[in-house]
Design goal:
The structure holds two protein chains of two kinds. By secondary structure, chain A is mainly α. Chain A is built from eleven helices and no strands. The two termini of chain A are 37 Å apart. In chain B, the strands form two sheets. Chain B has a five-stranded antiparallel beta sheet with strand order 1-2-3-7-6, with no helix packed on it. Chain B has a four-stranded antiparallel beta sheet with strand order 5-4-8-9, with no helix packed on it. By secondary structure, chain B is an alpha+beta fold. Classes of the chains: A mainly alpha, B alpha+beta.
């Protein structure tokens, strides 16, 4: 117990610190995309759901790491899923950018007369039609799988905690604890970014949206390229 | 219908405060600097990330004062996301406690990644660890060998994905 207990505050603090450094660069574009896409709606619940989804994914991954006690074993199995998550994030950001710019609406991309045949087309059509903020929870669940150095480091600690644990259940609890603390630590930075993107004086300026939309599409392409090459 | 982005937006009370505009601009600038730093390393960053060890070929040695530390990482070549063995030998110091290694990237904060070392003989230690993969594509890592009571020595090396 004496080994694991300090890990929780350590990784809560680590999450907080890398949140304002690393996560803003990695997840910032996604959070800004989500915020701007909400337009005049309240952002608290959607972002709470997005972050909850992310933390739940971290917790599950931490539990698996803690159960196996092997970082490399689990990481090898989830590598392809993470690659897919990165490409998905890129496509999501591009579509949000296109919709936000006003140049191309969802209706034009997946028009009413268009009958989507593919799984991805159907998925995005449904996504564009969903009005409930509940959709932000599964988005958070999925994007919690994004490959990220600090997340890997936290998972490494979760696996280490599992290795030191008295039993499998103990390992799961400790692994989950490390990752949930880490995830919670990253939340303030991402809320901060979300709040900045929601500022009223910014939302009044169309040029901000135009520039933001172009940047979002560029970031989306960057994510896709990184995902393919990952 | 073209989506409206300019109508219906609720005004936040603090949004009109000049100080928050300045904070926002500061944040944007900081973001560009951070993002820019990830894209192209500046001179200061480059100085801190100058490779001083070819970890893929044998043993590296570095000195700091009277302290001389040798580090060997196996298997070679050194790849990310796999179990690695870190072998350390120390000359010129008798550590008060067992030494350990802090792993990290010079270019960005990765969180605490520590390799505990156990003695394998007089002045020699060994431990296992993992160097994680950074999606940014950067490959330069450091292994900072901390010798309690005697100092620390930093090895900077490239890894393979």
């Amino acid at each position: 117990m004496s080994f694991i207990d300090p890990l929780y505050p350590v990784f809560l603090a680590t999450g907080f610190a890398v949140g304002f450094g690393h996560c803003i660069g990695m997840c910032g574009p996604i959070v800004v995309s989500l915020s701007l896409n909400l337009k005049d709606k309240n952002l608290l619940i959607p972002h709470l759901l997005y972050n909850s989804g992310r933390v739940v994914t971290y917790g599950v991954l931490g539990g698996v790491m803690g159960a196996t006690g092997s970082f490399t074993l689990v990481a090898a199995h989830i590598a392809e899923i993470q690659k897919g998550a990165m490409i998905f994030a890129g496509v999501l950001i591009i579509i949000m950018g296109l919709a936000m710019s006003g140049w191309i609406s969802f209706g034009q991309v997946f028009g009413n007369s268009y009958n989507p045949g593919g799984f991805i087309s159907k998925g995005f059509r449904r996504l564009s039609q969903i009005k409930s903020p509940a959709v932000y929870f599964p988005i958070g669940l999925l994007l919690g799988l994004l490959p990220c150095g600090p997340v890997y480091t936290a998972l490494l600690a979760a696996a280490g905690a599992g290795m030191e644990a008295a039993g499998t259940l103990d390992g799961i609890i400790k692994g989950m604890g490390v990752m949930i603390c880490f995830g919670l630590g990253t939340v303030p930075a991402l809320f901060f970014v979300a709040k900045l993107a929601d500022m009223g004086w910014l939302k009044k300026r169309e040029i901000i949206y135009r520039i933001g939309a172009v940047l979002m599409m560029a970031v989306g392409i960057y994510f896709i390229i990184k995902g393919i090459r990952y | 219908m073209k989506p409206s982005i300019l109508t219906g937006g609720k005004q936040l009370y603090f949004a009109t405060k000049p100080v928050l505009k300045i904070v926002f601009l500061f944040f944007i600038l900081t973001g560009f600097l951070v993002f820019g730093g990830q894209l192209a390393s500046g001179p200061a960053l480059a100085a801190e990330s100058t490779v001083n060890c070819d970890a893929h070929k044998g043993v590296c040695s570095q000195s700091s004062g009277d302290l001389t530390v040798s580090l060997e990482i196996t298997p070679q070549p050194v790849k990310t996301m796999q179990d690695l063995v870190f072998k350390v030998s120390i000359e010129g110091a008798s550590p008060a406690k067992h030494p350990h290694i802090d792993l990290g990237m010079p270019a960005m904060k990765m969180g605490p990644n520590q390799v505990s070392l156990k003695p394998t003989g007089p002045g020699t230690y060994e431990g296992t660890g993992v160097i994680v993969r950074c999606p940014s594509g950067k490959k330069t890592w450091f292994a900072n060998v901390i010798v309690p009571g005697s100092g620390e020595v930093k090895f900077i090396f490239n890894v393979i994905y």
